[in-house]
From TrEMBL:
Gene3D superfamilies named among the record's database cross-references: 3.40.1350.10
Domain Restriction endonuclease type IV Mrr: from-to ranges: 77-182
InterPro entries: Restrct_endonuc-II-like, Restrct_endonuc_IV_Mrr, tRNA_endonuc-like_dom_sf
Protein name as catalogued: Restriction endonuclease type IV Mrr domain-containing protein
């Protein structure tokens, strides 16, 4: 599916946007079609109704913005030892075996089902994140032959760092994704 199709846009939008499309289709069918064709015109709203219900379910399952903001605020107030313990609990809860890596560009080595992941989080409080810590993490990852490198931050990651991460396959974890990881452990 094209990322700019109406279905794709509605799958990224709030649930009520799809319901608005449903309402427009039903009202237009009722007003513009002859009586014997109105039910068929209204059936055209079914895919949009499905998308709206799916998005409502998705949005109901995720944490609300207030809880996300509170979790990120609490994480920002933590000292490194507390935050690293929080991350370790969160990853262990997901089933990873977590090994701390002191004195390295990476802070944790995660293993699960034969896959190895390096996580760098020590600079999580920095106001801005550039390319250099990502380069260090990537170099460490290549030297240890890992599958995935993950960089955790509360602050803004520069556009240059984002493009570097995308180009080299480094996963950036911040904002709502980070809150989802730590929310039940804060």
């Amino acid at each position: 599916m094209s990322s700019n199709s109406l279905y794709a846009v509605l799958l990224r939008s709030p649930w009520w946007a799809s319901m608005l499309v449903v309402l427009v289709i039903v009202l237009a069918s009722g007003a513009l079609l002859p009586a014997q064709y109105r039910p068929f015109g209204m059936l055209a709203a079914l895919p949009f109704l499905g998308i709206g219900l799916y998005r409502a379910w998705q949005q109901g399952q995720g944490p609300n913005s207030k809880r996300v903001a509170q979790a990120l605020e609490r994480a920002g107030a933590m000292p490194w030892r507390e935050f690293s313990a929080l991350l370790q609990r969160a990853y262990e809860h997901q089933g990873y075996a977590v090994t701390p890596l002191p004195g390295s560009a990476a802070d944790f080595k995660l293993t699960f089902s034969g896959r190895t992941i390096l996580v760098s989080a020590k600079r999580w409080k920095a106001a801005a994140h550039g390319v250099e810590p990502l380069r260090e993490l990537l170099a460490t990852g290549r030297s240890q032959d890992v599958d995935i490198c993950v960089y955790i931050s509360l602050g803004e990651v520069s556009a240059q760092a984002q493009s570097f991460a995308k180009e080299h396959g480094v996963t950036l974890v911040s904002g709502q994704t980070l809150a989802g990881l730590i929310l039940n452990h804060v």
